[in-house]
UniProtKB/TrEMBL annotation:
GO terms for cellular component: membrane. GO terms for molecular function: glycosyltransferase activity. It holds the Pfam family Glyco_tranf_2_3. This is LysM domain-containing protein. It comes from Candidatus Daviesbacteria bacterium RIFCSPHIGHO2_12_FULL_43_11. Keywords: Glycoprotein, Glycosyltransferase, Membrane, Transferase, Transmembrane, Transmembrane helix. It is found in: Membrane. The chain crosses the membrane at residues 20-38, 322-347, 367-386, 406-431. The keyword Protein biosynthesis does not apply. Residues 469-515 form the LysM domain. InterPro entries: Beta_helix, Glycosyltrans_GT2/GT47, LysM, LysM_dom_sf, Nucleotide-diphossugar_trans, Para_beta_helix_rpt-2, PbH1, Pectin_lyas_fold.
Length: 941
């Protein structure tokens, strides 16, 4: 094959199995379209018979339970066409229509009323035909409206003495409901496709519809006994009189003609349920007549007609192939293939009903419903085949006159229909299964991979202490004794807390200190003195330009009462016992310790409204919050500041600060900052300046506290060794907890993180050696946990993650360990992509996730996935990358167990137990030449 052709075909190689799967559907589609095109090509030469011909006409209409207004309108339309007589055979129980016809007869001398006690349309027609005096009888339904000229156009073909019957073109009169519009489309398809084709290619038509058909009376009279007393399989046939008459005439060699210029209209049924019942009745009539015509042999005297009947008999089975294909592709998650079928449905049906749309262009809006009902009617025809001898609902016979319904009678037909559908479905499913196993090589034994747990977090799964501790000084303790407690040099503690230690020998009971277990040299300020005799005193000033209270005094400890005493009520006021209202910014400077304790303050309100907001910050200081509620407050509304769009109060610790929060509640804080400002405004933040990694030692301890309705629940940027333990972070605008650039050594344990507007926890940009353990993470709008942009060597262990859009996402981040988690009930379970290499997924329960349990794509290779339990997911493992080890997993009760697709290659599937997956155990649709390796483990389905 020329290289240019090869280059064009190469992108299709990965879809080769899908193309092969489409092959049977393509053959059927080619057949269906060939037949349709043949009909259109043959039918294009059809012309209605022109020319004047006159014979006398009697209108014969059987009437039962008709709408009196419709009947009256129909009578008027027939009279306007000047027939020689109008004969109405009305059931004796239909008093209203009897009255309508009597009033009509007073003005029409050619009208004749026959009241009958014999039920059924066939006897009524026979009675009317016998009573008629004209050469031509028009058999008309009592709700059919004629255009002017119907009689004139219908009589034209009778100039040929071989013509015994003439059919009219029919439509729905002013369709309004969905049922009426669908029926109108179906009528147009019949009279634009079927009738012109048969009119040109055959002397016989499939049915001269009972709404209006013209017949030679002398031809009908000998046929009336066969019409009235027809039986099928020993049972008297009630409905289908129009089709029976059509075939009786055709069988005797007479010619049948369709006149498209003779236009009549019917109201059509208004409800879909009634339309379905009507179509079921017509389908039974059609099956009975067509099968009788084929098996009796006379139909084959008219080859085009016989071809049409055979094609129509096959059609309901072939029309169901397309939705079955669509369903199989959806179940197997071949969304591209399903989309192709969906687009084809719209395109093909649009072409086929385009003549109707020229009449009624607005009906394009119901095209989706038409497509659905087109398939439903195919299934209905199959059910009709299995209930041929059922005489069900009909318009011309009250249900009380039918045999009583037996509850279990339709059961065999329902079973047969269902079995037919299942047979088609299972045949295609097995065919698909046989195709989609390419690229798998069975081996007795694979090389043993290195599956030792990697050193992540604080050194492995057994380590639980973070590399930084916050220590509360006890009475009579010294730095030396504290250093001994942690087995680190005293100098390390001095360096970490140097801003708060003007005299290292004078530490106070209750003071909180950083204890740097792994970070001895971060944030050192060599110009600080640590042996000062005259200790600094606190200094509280007002920067009126920025409306900020500035507190300085290295090593000092202050409270809100101290600040209020110095500034007065214009800046900070105690509104009630333990309720404080801050009306200016509060900046805690270098080495100052601010203690917010429940003994003094239970609620700190930060002024925040549409005109201004205040913040609480520390630069190289310490803020301790214990047992306090800190919120924004809009005094004008006597409520929290709910609108973060114009800025809102926040709390922030910067540089080498320490912000500790215990047993507290911080809520309704923060907003998204403008691009030119440092991002410390998110709500409650710990942040070093951008690009200053290793220059500052920022940390804190957050325990047993609540963060809610903030912009971010809590935001960490460049902090070290922080602990988030026992907290609840919920209903925040964006993230629950967001450790960002270069945050490391964090311990996130025993928290509840839920109902946040984006991810529950996100570690983003070089966040390494963190531990996320034993958290309950649920109902977040996006991912429960996300490891993002070079965030590696993290441990995600023992978490319960459910109800999120995605349980865990690993994006461009490698060497992480995901261990012993329950990831359940999410839309997607675990998603790993963007060159995330060398991650380990082990010991997890990944179950009940809607789309997939674990998905590897976009270069996320060299992943070790072993000893996990995957159950009740859509696809348990969806692999599109290479060099992954998938071993010793239990994979059960999913739709598909393992799905290898596209660029998946050199993957090892080793000793997995795969069973009771509803669709596939292992599905392989890899690119040509890609190979994956499978040991002969326990694969049941």
């Amino acid at each position: 094959m020329p290289p240019e052709i090869n280059a064009l075909l190469k992108p299709l190689e990965q879809y080769s199995d899908l193309i092969y799967f489409y092959f049977p559907l393509g053959i059927v589609g080619l057949w269906r379209w060939s037949v349709w095109i043949l009909k259109k090509v043959v039918g294009v030469s059809y012309r209605a018979k022109k020319g004047f011909h006159w014979e006398s006409v009697s209108v014969v209409t059987p009437v039962y339970n008709e709408n009196p207004e419709v009947f009256q309108k129909a009578l008027k339309s027939w009279e306007d066409n000047n027939p020689q007589e109008i004969i109405a055979i009305i059931d004796s129980s239909d008093a209203k229509c009897i009255e309508v016809f009597k009033e009509f007869a007073l003005k029409s001398s050619s009208s004749k009323l026959i009241i009958t006690d014999e039920p059924g349309k066939r006897p009524a027609l026979a009675l009317g035909i016998k009573e008629a005096k004209s050469e031509i009888v028009a058999l008309v339904d009592s709700d059919t409206i004629w255009n002017l000229g119907v009689k004139r156009h219908a009589l034209s073909p009778f100039s040929n003495p071989k013509v015994a019957g003439v059919g009219t073109r029919q439509n729905v009169d002013n369709p309004k409901t969905l049922a009426q519009k669908i029926f109108d489309i179906q009528l147009d398809q019949r009279y634009f496709d079927e009738m012109p084709f048969l009119s040109v290619s055959s002397d016989v038509l499939t049915c001269l519809s009972g709404r209006t058909a013209f017949y030679r009376r002398k031809v009908l009279l000998p046929l009336l006994d066969d019409l009235v007393n027809e039986t099928f399989w020993g049972k008297k046939v009630i409905s289908g009189e129009d089709k029976r008459l059509t075939y009786l005439i055709g069988e005797r060699g007479f010619k049948l003609v369709f006149q498209s210029n003779a236009r009549v209209y019917t109201p059509g049924v208004e409800g879909l349920r009634t339309l379905i019942k009507q179509r079921l009745r017509w389908s039974r009539n059609s099956w009975r007549a067509d099968l009788r015509a084929l098996f009796s042999g006379w139909a084959f005297k008219h080859p085009a007609f016989a071809f049409f009947l055979i094609d129509r008999a096959v059609q309901p089975f072939t029309v169901l192939l397309s939705p079955i294909y669509f369903t199989i592709l959806l179940i197997s998650r071949s969304f591209e293939g399903a989309l192709v079928i969906l687009v084809w449905w719209y395109f093909s049906r649009l072409i086929k009903i385009s003549p109707h749309l020229l009449r009624r262009p607005r009906d394009i809006l119901i095209l989706p419903f038409y497509i659905i009902f087109n398939f439903a009617f195919g299934l209905l025809r199959i059910y009709a085949l299995f209930t041929l001898n059922t005489q069900g609902w009909i318009t011309r016979w009250d249900i009380k006159r039918l045999p009583k319904f037996a509850f279990f009678k339709p059961a065999p037909a329902l079973v047969a229909t269902t079995m037919t559908l299942l047979l088609l479905f299972s045949t295609l499913a097995v065919y698909k299964q046989s195709l989609f196993v390419s690229g798998l090589i069975g081996l007795e034994e694979l090389s043993e991979p290195d599956i030792n747990l990697p050193a992540v977090g604080f050194g492995g799964t057994e380590a639980s202490s973070p590399p930084m501790a916050v220590y509360t000084v006890l009475p009579d303790e010294s730095l030396s004794s504290i250093a001994g407690r942690f087995n680190i040099p005293e100098e390390n503690i001095i360096k970490a807390n140097i801003a708060s230690l003007p005299n290292k020998s004078l530490i106070r009971s209750g003071q909180r200190l950083k204890v740097p277990i792994l970070y001895p040299d971060v944030g050192i300020k060599s110009n600080y003195h640590t042996d000062m005799k005259n200790l600094p005193k606190s200094k509280i000033t007002i920067d009126t330009k920025s409306d900020t209270i500035v507190v300085s005094g290295r090593g000092t400890h202050i409270t809100l009462a101290d600040i209020a005493f110095s500034t007065g009520d214009n800046y900070l006021i105690q509104e009630a016992p333990k309720i404080w209202y801050l009306k200016a910014n509060l900046l805690i400077q270098n080495g100052v310790n601010l203690n917010l304790d429940k003994g003094e303050v239970e609620w700190l309100k930060l002024e925040s409204n549409s005109n201004k907001f205040v913040w609480l910050k520390t630069h190289n200081g310490v803020i301790n919050i214990d047992g306090v509620k800190v919120t924004s407050w809009d005094e004008t509304k006597a409520d929290f500041d709910m609108d973060y769009s114009d800025g809102r109060s926040f709390v922030a610790a910067k540089y080498s600060s320490m912000l500790n929060i215990y047993n507290s509640e911080l809520s309704y804080l923060g907003y998204k900052p403008p691009p030119v400002k440092e991002a410390s405004t998110f709500g409650v933040s710990w942040k070093i300046p951008r690009g200053s990694f290793n220059k500052y030692l920022l940390t804190g301890e957050v325990k047993n506290s609540k963060f809610h309705h903030n912009y971010f629940g809590a935001y960490v940027y460049g902090a070290r060794g922080m602990v988030f333990e026992g907290n609840e972070l919920f209903e925040n605008v964006k993230y629950g907890l967001d450790p960002h650039d270069d945050s490391s050594g964090l311990l996130v344990v025993d928290n509840k993180i839920h109902h946040n507007g984006s991810h529950g926890i996100i570690l983003s940009k070089r966040c390494i050696n963190n531990v996320i353990r034993d958290n309950l993470i649920y109902n977040n709008l996006k991912a429960g946990i996300m490891l993002h942009e070079s965030s590696g060597q993290n441990l995600v262990e023992g978490n319960e993650i459910y109800g999120n859009f995605e349980g865990l996402v690993v994006y461009n981040s490698g060497q992480n360990l995901v261990y012993d988690n329950l990831i359940t009930g999410n839309t997607n379970g675990v998603r790993i992509n963007m060159a995330s290499l060398g991650n380990t997924i082990t010991g997890n329960r990944i179950e009940n996730n809607q789309n997939f349990g674990l998905y590897l794509y976009n270069g996320a290779g060299s992943t070790k996935i072993y000893q996990n339990n995957f159950s009740k997911n859509g696809v348990a493992l969806y692999i599109k990358t290479k060099d992954n080890y998938i071993g010793r997993n239990t994979i059960s009760a999913n739709r598909t167990g393992i799905y290898l697709k596209g660029e998946a290659s050199n993957n090892q599937l080793d000793e997995n137990i795969i069973f009771e997956n509803s669709f596939y155990a292992i599905l392989s649709k890899t690119a040509k030449g890609n190979k994956n390796f499978l040991t002969y483990g326990k694969v049941f389905r």
